[in-house]
Write a structure and sequence with these properties.
The complex is a heterotrimer of chains A (220), B (607) and C (203). Chain A is α/β, with parallel strands linked by helices and 220 residues long. Chain A is built from 7 helices and 5 strands; from the N terminus they run H-H-H-E-H-E-H-E-H-E-E-H. In chain A, the strands form 2 sheets. Chain A has a 3-stranded parallel β-sheet. The longest helix of chain A has 16 residues. Chain B is of the alpha+beta class. Chain B has 2 domains: 121 residues, Beta Polymerase, domain 2; 339 residues, Cytochrome-c3 Hydrogenase, chain B, CATH 1.10.645. Chain B contains 19 helices and 18 strands. Chain B has a 5-stranded mixed β-sheet, covered by helices on one side. Chain B has a 3-stranded antiparallel β-sheet with strand order 8-9-10. Chain B has a 3-stranded antiparallel β-sheet with strand order 16-17-18. In chain C, the strands form 2 sheets. Chain C has a 3-stranded mixed β-sheet. In chain C, strands 3-4-6 form a 3-stranded antiparallel β-sheet. In chain C, helix 7 packs across helix 8. Helix content of chain C is 39%, strand content 16%. The chains are: A alpha/beta (220), B alpha+beta (607), C alpha+beta (203). Chains A and C meet through helix 5, strand 3 and helix 6 of A and strand 1 of C. Strand 14 of chain B pairs parallel with strand 1 of chain C. Bound molecules: iron/sulfur cluster (SF4) (3 copies). The site of one iron/sulfur cluster has 12 residues of chain C, from helix 4.
Chain lengths: 220, 607, 203
Amino acid sequence: MSNEAVSLHNPDYPVPEELRHNIAITTLDRIYNWSRARSVWPMLFGLACCAIEMIATAAARYDPARFGMEVMRPSPRQADLMIIAGTVTKKMVPQIVRLYNQMSEPRYVIAMGACASGGGPFKEGYSVVDGIDKFIPVDVYIPGCPPTPQALLQGFITLHEKIEGQSITTVPWYRKGEGEAIPVPVLGPDLIDPRQTALIRNVASQPPDTSDAAQEPATD
Amino acid sequence: MSKTSPDTTTNDVAEILQQKFPDSIHPDDREGYSGIVVSPDSLVEVAQSIRDDFRYNLLTSLSYVDYIDEDFFEVVYHAYDTVKGGPALNFKARTPRSQATLPSLTGVWPSANLQEREAWDLMGIHFTGHPNLKRLLTWEGFEGHPLRKDWKEPFYEEDKKPFKSRWPEGRPDRAESRLPYGMNVQYPPGFTPDGWSPEGESALYDSLSTPMTGSGVDVQAIKTDQLVVNMGPQHPSTHGVFRMAVTLDGETITRLEPVVGYLHRNHEKIGERNTYLGNMPYTDRLDYICSMSNNLAYAMTIEKMMGQEVPERAELLRVLVVELTRIVNHFWLIGFLLNDLGAFFTPALYAILERELIVDLFEALTGSRMMCNYMRFGGVAYDLPPYIGGPAVKPGDKARHMDTMKFIKDLVYERLPRAIDQLDNFLTQNEVLVSRCKGVGILPPEAAVACGVTGPVLRASGVPYDIRRSDPYSIYNELDFDVAVRYNCDTYDRYLIRLDEIRQSLRILEQIIPGLEATEGQEYWAGKRGYNVRVPTGEHYGHADNPKGELGFYVVSDGTANPYRYHIRAPSLINITALEEMCRGLKVADSVVILGSLDIVLGELDR
Amino acid sequence: MYGLGIIKGLGITIKHFANTYVEDFKQGIKRYTAEDRFTARQGLEAQGLFTVQYPEEKIAVPERFRYIPFLVVNDDDHPDAPGQPWCTSCGICSKVCPPQCIWIVRSTDPETGRPKPEPQEFYIDIDICMNCGYCAEFCPFDAIKMDHDYEISSYDRTSAHIYDLQKLTKPLSYWRTIAPTRAEEERTAREAKEAAKAEKAKK
Ligand code: SF4
Ligand code: SF4
Ligand code: SF4
């Protein structure tokens, strides 16, 4: 208890020695972030092998309740944190972007494992997205294949540190106007990111002989 | 040497078949190959004869190979006899690459359904007569058929690993920086993205909203609208990114279609580029709860092709870890089945606790909790560690020190039997479990076999078919255990059979322990320990009884350091063939439980 | 009887709950402070509370634990060549690596232009690495080992996730701390090999 008080207390404001354990003077930012960081609700959502370690983390041995994170919400509307636990495939990424858009701000994303961060061992394959950060902003990357539960907990702590570093005056979700939704990718002959439409049009209309592997026509 | 061991019965059958169909069958006499080649025109007829006259009633695997130099595709079928057991009857059909068409075998064996769709999707072989020939793992509209040898992915570097760009002049470049899009994508020349709309979804929903005739559910009698409801891929009870689209009449399921491929990671294409050894850690990621069992199936397949012997201690260690894996898997399943029934997370917590103890052993033994990468061709990578635990290094580290043999003994003789009795005691008679599971999701034995269902699900349908007994591998024929069977064919029996199997696994482990003590210090990895494994030319289908069902690897070697074809027969994929049959006429909530009792894992299902 | 299942289930939970306090009462504060009690709490005799209070207490990982690889170099107090990497840039690890995430530039002697047994550059893309341990298993010089440090989450991957020579390098003494038995075994094996070689040379 006194630990919490100490972590909240802002040393810029002197408090008499005898009152130290009863009074903590803090800033709005600190109390705001402190309360947010200690109740980050993750979304109940797993993709691949890493999800098994995520579930193992949620179980008795590692118990994320100690971080206020045991409430896994199946609905994106009630979740603050999306843990991308596993390989993101092209077929799955439209759903992930849609789920991300449905989460209410403030929202955070953890890329758990090599696959979610950068494609992982399956990066060279044709149906894998080489890192979820190509589509949605990622706050914390946890390397490993799979990250052990303790590595995931450490990632949570890293996220808490990030949250505690934010300021209520600059955070984007109190600005005026609506936040911009991320355009949902479309499954075409390959995955189409709507933000790249113009680029695709330009590149694909060029004669194929200038190409490297990118324009290699799929013989069929 | 790499020929599958000569077995009189299958050879006899092949001969009789040849006499019966002299014009349309000839033996496959390529070096290292076996089986018969059937001409496409009489494929269905021959298949029927194989099923009815020779009683090879279970078509487990349908593999497909692109022989680009010879300019044909070959589809390879492996059929088994669930009553007599024994090795597979292996028959093949060929079709020219330019006009790849074969008759569908779905009429003979429904288990061909999803596998033919997969072959269409990834290889572009058209199966005439298939009821629903849509793409399976990629999506409708995807460009090309990726497993063809002349199809290249966007990040394509070279045909074979190791890549030359890694050494001695290896400067890292992120593959995406080579492409104009900065991403793992490619488009056909002249493609314009404007106004593109994905076609797959509407096709799926259209096909589901037309009422099916003869579905056994009388739609006309109930005057309600049919409603197509989508579950997944993000759904808390679909065990990963599984999706099913169901047609509902009120709350009753009239049709159900599994939609898969949301975790398709191209194991096979990558596997053909990898070296033989390099595929081992990839098999960990198939059924990621049972990495040890996957390792074993793959190691055995390649060992068979190489003619590599395995020392006794390695076999003991293999059985030890594989049976522990079975226990882990079944604990996990029981926990999550209860989850699906609404007992949110509490039983799962206790199940995961036991798993944690077993993975502690795996971690000390292999270095990783989940991705064990433990087996090598000719043995296992490590012997048992002297103790479980590690030295304290970091601030906060707490060292543990548990003698390994004592740990294993305590686990097998005390901890696990107690845990399973506890689960049994407080779950089996639980009225929610009983009322939600008894009589729900009936899968009759004939239907199970026809759909190619294997593993505990098949055995809970009253078919005592276990590869450890029917086509024994490793040292299972020296071990004393019963093949667990249950005869009510419902979800409750599928739950009970997992308890039975855990008990049988414990029985096996009890027999393993004295052997482990007796062979202490002996060799655990025979043969050359090189990284460059050479496999003689030929083909082989190796399989093992995994906790989820029959995991098979069909590997074709052309004598180089990389497999020419690497096909995985995934039990999870083929088991869901029976899902619609089991769910039809039941309430939508039951489908969740039935799916839970089928025990799928997406890494393996989608590969 | 309806409700019996619920009562039974609750009974289990209550038993676990109570066991924690029974153990606490029996063992006192020692349960959480004494070194050897941790083994009991996180082993097969675990009763009641099973939680590891990360980050105050962490389960120490076993010696064979695999995470990201690192390169072994001589300790700083090595008499002849402090900081000398053991890697000879033979390239075996980059060949066995299943996802091909190791890049090595071999050094050349500036005078002769011949390759030198030492890496000039060495990279591992940890966003691809699958922690399989093959590089360490097949390196003939014990020069690459699997690190045990899993607490490496970061805010940015573009700059931080391709490990270069500097980031990969760790001294031998570090390997000795995280895997004392294995380091010792390897040392004996190396010395035996050296001895055999010397013997041969003598003959
Ligand atoms: S990082 Fe490794 S463990 Fe995680 S999803 Fe990818 S392959 Fe699986
Ligand atoms: S780390 Fe080992 S295997 Fe890799 S290049 Fe250096 S010496 Fe060779
Ligand atoms: S651990 Fe495996 S994947 Fe990672 S660098 Fe070593 S060989 Fe490559």
